[in-house]
C-alpha cells in the first residue's frame, strides 16, 4: 500500500478530494458522538465514573507487575494456559504454534485490535492458516483487503453500495443489492458456516481480572461467543494493560465503555470467560510489544489506560474529515496518534501534528487520558529527536529569532510587513497553502503598536 | 489596578481594531491600561509546532514586559492558555508564576475580575458565537458539550448584555474551526474543510456576524467567508462589547 | 496441557514493567457509586424495549407456556433448561453433547440470576444455561427472570455476583445486532434475532 510513503496530511488531502464523501463520513461519526452525548447526559454521576475509572487505571499502571502475576496464577489455577509475548512477532509465533499443534489450518477470529497491531492475519496467511474475521465490519474490510479504519467501527469509511459490490463479488449476492438488512443476513449465513466448521477461535480481551483470572470480551454481534463456544481451542490475545484489579471494577468500566463508544447502555454480550469448557483448551497470550516502554514514559504512560472505545475518534474533527486510513497505523485517531510514536517515532512523526489540539478527545475519554496534552508533548519529543522536517526547522528558527527581538519585529513598522515575509501563509500565490482556499486578511493601514504610539502617551 | 495589555502578534499586525476595542473598553470600565511597546509574541507558534525549547527568548521578553503588572489581559484565549501552561524561566521562576496566575483572557477578565453586569453597547444584529477551543476547553470560558456539567458561557453572558444583539443557535455548539496554528497550512485540506463546515453552521442559522474571543479562528473563517464572496463579517468580541 | 510460567519473555516483560511502572497509588473506593430511586422493573422494561428486546410480564410458568406459541414458531426445535417448561420443548439438563448439534434450535428458553435496569441486561452463567453456546446459537432467545431480582445498575449487579465462581458467565442485553453497514441497525447478526424476557412475579 502506498500509505507507507505518504504522511497524514497527504493522505487527508486525497480523502478530501471527494467533499460529499467527507461530509457523509463526518456526519455519520458526528451522529455517533451525538448518541454518546445523549447517553452520558442521562447519568448525573458520569464525571465521577470517568474520574474513578481513571484512578483505577492509575492503580493498575502502578501495580502492573503484581497484577499480571496475580492474574496469571489465577488463570492457570482455572485451567487456562498463559503465554507471554515480548513483541508482535512472538505473539504471532505463539498463535501459529498452537494452531499447528492441533493441525488447524482454518481459524475464526473476532475483533482484536492487538492482532491488527501485530499483523497476525498476514503472518498466519503466509504460514498456511486461513483466518476469517467474524465481526461483520472486519469481515467487510477483510474482503476489501483493507485494514479497519476505526477501532470500533472497522468499515465506517465504506458506503453500503461498495459493501454490496464486495458481497456480490465474494459471497454471490445479486449485483446492485446494497440493503444493509439483506447484506447482514447474507453474512449471517456465510459466517454461521464458518463458526460451525472452525476448530480454533481467537478473540480479543476487553478486561482481564487479576483477582479471579477471568477475562471479559464484549460484542454486539455475539461473534466472539459463537466462535469460542464452538471451537476446541480458544486463544485470547491481550495487551498487558487490559488488566484490572477486581471483578467489581467491571461495573465502572462496563458502564463507561459502550456509552462512550456508541451511546448504548451496554454491549449485547459482555462475556466472562473463567475456565475452559470441558474438553476445550483455552489460551491467553499476554503481549508487551512496546507497552512496557510506554509505561516508562512518564508523560505518555496514561495512554495505556485506554479501553478502546473509539470516542476520541468520533469526536475528533480531524479524524472525521480525514478518515482512519490517513493515520497509516492499526489504531487511528487521537489515541492512535499518541500510541504510535512509541512504537516507531520516525514512521509516525506526523501523527501528533494531525490535530488542532482542540481538546475534545480528552473530554470524551472515559478514562480521562490527557490525549491532547500528550499530542503537544509528543511534538516536543519528536522535534527534539530530530524528526522535524528541515524546512519546518528553518522556518521556526527565523520565527524564533524575530519574535524574541522587538527590534527585528518592528523593523519597517508597516503593518503586515513582517507577517508577509515570515509567516508561511502570507503570500498570495498558488503554492501558499493558506491562499489555496482562503483569502488573506487585508493588511490595515497601521498596526496596533503604531496606532497606540499616536493615540496614547503612556509607556 | 494597572493592567498590562498583551496584544498577540497577528492581532497587532492584522486586526488593530480588535486591540483598540479591547483597550478602549477596559479604559471605559475605569481600568488603567498600559501597552508595553516591546512585546512581540507569547511563543505559542513555535511551541505548538514542537519547538518549545526555542521559546526561551520569547519567555524572557514576555516576563520583562509584563512582570510588573497587577493583571495582564489579552484578547486571545489561545495565547493566554499558552502563557498559563507553558511560560517558564528558570532564572526568574517567581515572575513567570506571577504572570501565569495573573494573565486573563479579555472576556473572563470582564466577568471574573471586573465582574461586569451591564454594558452600554448596542449591536442590532444576528451574531454567531464561535467557541474557540483553547478559550473554552483550555481556559473554561464556557461549558463544554462533552461534559456532564452545568451550562455557562462567560463571553455569551457578556454578549447578552448588548442591546439588540441576537445570538444564533448552532447545530454544533463547540466544534473546532480547524485553524490550529501551523495546522492551518501543514494540514491545509482538513483545516479548510473544518473551517468551511464551521462557517456553514453559522450561515445556516442566519448569522450576520461571527464573533469569538480568538482572532486567529476568526481570521481563518474570514478567509473562507471572503473566498466564498459572503457578506458575513467576523468581529472580535471586544469590538461588539465596545459598542461599535 | 502444560503450564510453564517461567520463560524468557515472561521474565523480560515483568522486569521491564517493574522497572518502568510508577510509584504505587491506592485503588479508589467505588462503594459510593449506586443506582437512583427509579423503579427497576419499569426502567428495565423501557431500556430493553429501546434496544430491541421484548418484555412480557407473567404470573407463572403456565402463562409462559400459553404465550410461547403466540410469539414463536414452536413447531420448530425448542430447547429449555427449565424443568417447569419441559412440556414446551426439549429439556436440556447439561448432559455432555457436541455443541454443534444445537445449530438448528429455533428457540432457547432459559433463566437468569438477575437483571439490570439501567441497561436491560440479564446475567446468566454456565450453571443456568448448561451449554455455553445455547443462548447464542438459537434463532430466538427467551429468558425468565424474577421481578424481585432486578437491580438498578451494574454496581449492584457485581455486588450480587460477588465472588461466586463460574466457568462462564455473560450479560445479555437484547438481540444480537450490528450497525456495521452505514450505521443501519440490523437485529440478528450472528446470534438470536430476538430476545424476550419473561418477568415472573
Report on this structure.
The complex is a heterotrimer of chains A (459), B (244) and C (201). Chain A is of the alpha/beta class and 459 residues long. The radius of gyration of chain A is 25 Å and the shape is globular. The N and C termini of chain A lie far apart (61 Å). The longest helix of chain A has 22 residues, at 19-40. In chain A, helix 9 (160-171) packs across helix 10 (180-197) and helix 16 (333-343) runs parallel beside helix 18 (371-384). The model of chain A has no long low-confidence stretch (mean pLDDT 93). Chain A has 23 helices and 10 strands. Chain A folds into 3 domains: 1-16 and 29-42 and 298-388, Fumarate Reductase Iron-sulfur Protein, Chain B, domain 2, CATH 1.10.1060; 43-289, Rossmann fold (3-Layer(aba) Sandwich), CATH 3.40.50; 393-455, no CATH class. Chain B has 244 residues and is of the alpha/beta class. Chain B has a 4-stranded parallel β-sheet, with helices on both faces. A 4-stranded parallel β-sheet of chain B has the order 6-5-7-8. Chain B is globular. Chain B starts with a strand and ends with a helix. Chain C has one domain (40-200): NagB/RpiA/CoA transferase-like (Rossmann fold), CATH 3.40.50. Chain C has 6 helices and 12 strands. Chain C has helices spanning 8-20, 40-50, 61-71, 126-129, 134-137, 154-161, and strands spanning 54-58, 78-80, 90-91, 107-111, 114-116, 121-125, 140-146, 150-151, 168-172, 177-178, 186-187, 194-200. Chain C has a 6-stranded parallel β-sheet. Chain C has a 4-stranded mixed β-sheet with strand order 8-5-6-9. In chain C, strand 5 (114-116) and strand 6 (121-125) form a beta hairpin. The mean pLDDT of chain C is 96. Strand 9 (269-273) of chain A pairs antiparallel with strand 9 of chain C.
Amino acid at each position: 500500500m502506498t500509505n507507507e510513503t505518504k504522511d497524514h496530511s497527504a493522505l487527508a488531502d486525497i480523502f478530501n478530494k471527494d467533499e460529499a464523501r467527507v461530509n457523509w463520513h463526518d456526519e455519520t461519526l458526528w451522529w455517533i458522538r451525538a448518541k454518546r452525548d445523549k447517553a452520558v447526559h442521562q447519568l448525573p454521576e458520569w464525571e465521577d465514573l470517568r474520574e474513578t475509572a481513571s484512578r483505577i487505571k492509575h492503580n493498575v499502571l502502578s501495580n502492573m507487575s503484581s497484577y499480571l502475576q496475580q492474574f496469571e496464577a489465577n488463570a492457570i489455577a482455572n485451567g487456562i494456559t498463559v503465554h507471554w509475548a515480548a513483541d508482535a512477532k512472538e505473539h504471532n509465533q505463539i498463535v501459529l504454534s498452537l494452531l499447528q499443534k492441533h493441525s488447524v489450518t482454518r481459524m475464526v477470529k473476532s475483533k482484536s485490535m492487538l492482532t491488527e497491531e501485530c499483523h497476525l492475519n498476514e503472518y498466519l496467511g503466509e504460514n498456511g492458516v486461513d483466518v476469517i474475521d467474524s465481526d461483520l465490519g472486519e469481515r467487510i474490510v477483510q474482503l476489501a483487503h483493507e485494514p479497519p479504519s476505526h477501532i470500533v467501527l472497522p468499515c465506517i469509511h465504506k458506503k453500503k453500495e461498495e459493501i454490496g459490490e464486495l458481497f456480490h463479488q465474494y459471497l454471490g449476492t445479486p449485483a446492485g443489492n446494497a440493503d444493509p438488512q439483506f447484506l447482514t443476513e447474507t453474512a449471517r449465513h456465510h459466517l454461521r458456516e464458518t463458526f460451525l466448521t472452525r476448530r480454533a477461535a481467537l478473540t480479543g480481551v476487553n478486561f482481564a481480572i487479576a483477582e479471579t483470572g477471568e477475562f471479559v470480551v464484549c460484542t454486539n454481534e455475539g461473534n466472539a461467543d459463537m466462535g469460542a463456544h464452538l471451537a476446541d481451542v480458544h486463544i485470547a490475545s491481550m495487551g498487558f494493560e487490559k488488566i484490572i484489579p477486581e471483578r467489581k471494577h467491571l461495573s465502572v468500566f462496563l458502564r463507561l465503555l459502550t456509552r462512550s463508544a456508541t451511546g448504548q447502555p451496554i454491549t449485547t454480550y459482555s462475556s466472562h470467560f473463567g475456565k475452559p469448557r470441558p474438553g476445550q483448551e483455552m489460551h491467553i497470550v499476554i503481549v508487551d510489544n512496546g507497552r512496557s516502554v510506554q509505561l516508562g514514559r512518564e508523560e505518555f504512560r496514561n495512554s495505556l489506560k485506554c479501553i478502546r472505545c473509539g470516542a476520541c475518534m468520533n469526536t475528533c474533527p480531524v479524524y472525521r474529515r480525514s478518515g482512519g486510513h490517513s493515520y497509516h497505523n492499526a489504531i487511528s485517531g487521537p489515541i492512535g496518534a499518541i500510541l504510535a510514536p512509541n512504537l516507531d517515532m520516525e514512521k509516525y512523526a506526523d501523527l501528533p501534528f494531525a490535530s488542532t489540539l482542540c481538546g475534545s478527545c480528552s473530554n470524551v475519554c472515559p478514562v480521562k487520558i490527557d490525549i491532547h496534552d500528550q499530542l503537544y508533548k509528543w511534538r516536543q519529543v519528536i522535534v527534539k529527536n530530530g524528526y522535524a522536517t528541515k524546512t519546518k526547522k528553518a522556518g521556526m528558527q527565523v520565527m524564533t529569532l524575530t519574535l524574541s527581538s522587538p527590534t527585528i519585529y518592528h523593523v519597517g513598522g508597516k503593518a503586515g510587513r513582517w507577517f508577509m515575509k515570515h509567516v508561511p501563509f502570507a503570500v498570495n500565490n498558488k503554492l501558499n497553502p493558506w491562499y489555496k482556499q482562503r483569502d488573506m486578511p487585508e493588511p490595515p493601514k497601521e498596526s496596533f503598536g503604531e496606532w497606540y504610539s499616536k493615540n496614547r502617551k503612556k509607556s | 489596578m494597572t493592567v498590562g495589555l498583551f496584544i498577540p502578534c497577528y492581532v497587532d499586525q492584522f486586526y488593530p481594531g480588535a486591540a483598540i476595542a479591547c483597550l478602549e473598553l477596559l479604559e471605559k470600565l475605569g481600568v488603567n491600561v498600559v501597552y508595553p511597546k516591546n512585546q512581540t509574541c507569547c511563543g505559542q507558534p513555535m511551541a505548538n509546532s514542537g519547538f518549545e525549547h526555542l521559546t526561551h527568548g520569547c519567555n524572557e521578553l514576555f516576563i520583562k514586559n509584563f512582570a510588573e503588572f497587577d493583571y495582564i489581559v489579552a484578547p486571545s484565549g489561545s495565547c493566554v492558555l499558552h502563557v498559563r501552561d507553558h511560560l517558564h524561566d528558570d532564572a526568574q521562576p517567581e515572575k513567570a508564576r506571577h504572570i501565569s496566575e495573573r494573565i486573563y483572557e479579555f472576556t473572563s477578565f470582564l466577568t471574573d475580575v471586573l465582574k461586569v453586569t451591564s454594558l452600554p453597547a448596542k449591536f442590532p444584529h444576528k451574531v454567531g458565537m464561535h467557541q474557540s477551543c483553547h478559550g473554552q476547553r483550555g481556559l473554561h470560558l464556557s461549558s463544554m458539550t462533552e461534559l456532564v456539567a452545568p451550562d455557562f458561557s462567560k463571553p455569551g453572558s457578556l454578549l447578552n448584555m448588548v442591546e439588540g444583539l441576537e445570538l444564533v443557535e448552532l447545530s454544533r455548539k463547540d466544534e473546532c474551526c480547524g485553524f490550529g496554528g501551523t495546522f492551518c497550512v501543514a494540514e491545509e485540506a482538513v483545516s479548510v474543510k473544518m473551517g468551511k463546515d464551521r462557517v456553514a453552521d453559522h450561515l445556516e442559522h442566519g448569522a450576520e456576524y461571527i464573533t469569538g474571543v480568538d482572532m486567529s479562528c476568526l481570521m481563518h473563517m474570514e478567509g473562507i467567508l471572503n473566498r466564498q464572496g459572503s457578506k458575513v463579517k467576523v468581529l472580535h468580541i471586544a469590538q461588539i462589547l465596545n459598542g461599535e | 496441557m502444560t503450564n510453564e510460567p517461567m520463560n524468557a519473555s515472561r521474565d523480560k516483560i515483568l522486569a521491564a514493567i517493574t522497572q518502568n511502572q510508577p510509584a504505587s497509588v491506592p485503588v479508589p473506593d467505588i462503594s459510593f457509586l449506586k443506582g437512583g430511586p427509579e423503579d427497576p422493573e419499569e426502567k428495565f422494561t423501557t431500556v430493553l424495549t429501546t434496544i430491541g428486546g421484548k418484555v412480557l410480564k407473567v404470573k407463572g410458568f403456565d402463562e409462559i407456556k400459553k404465550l410461547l406459541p403466540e410469539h414463536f414458531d414452536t413447531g420448530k426445535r425448542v430447547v429449555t433448561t427449565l424443568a417447569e417448561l419441559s412440556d414446551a420443548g426439549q429439556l436440556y439438563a447439561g448432559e455432555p453433547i457436541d455443541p454443534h448439534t444445537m445449530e438448528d434450535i429455533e428457540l432457547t428458553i432459559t433463566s437468569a440470576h438477575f437483571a439490570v435496569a439501567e441497561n436491560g441486561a440479564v446475567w446468566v452463567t454456565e450453571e443456568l444455561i448448561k451449554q455455553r453456546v445455547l443462548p447464542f446459537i438459537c434463532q430466538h432467545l427467551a429468558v425468565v427472570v424474577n421481578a424481585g431480582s432486578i437491580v438498578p445498575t451494574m454496581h449492584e449487579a457485581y455486588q450480587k455476583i460477588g465472588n461466586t465462581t463460574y466457568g462462564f458467565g455473560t450479560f445479555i442485553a437484547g438481540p444480537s445486532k450490528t450497525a456495521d453497514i452505514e450505521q443501519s441497525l440490523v437485529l440478528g447478526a450472528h446470534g438470536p434475532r430476538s430476545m424476550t424476557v419473561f418477568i415472573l412475579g
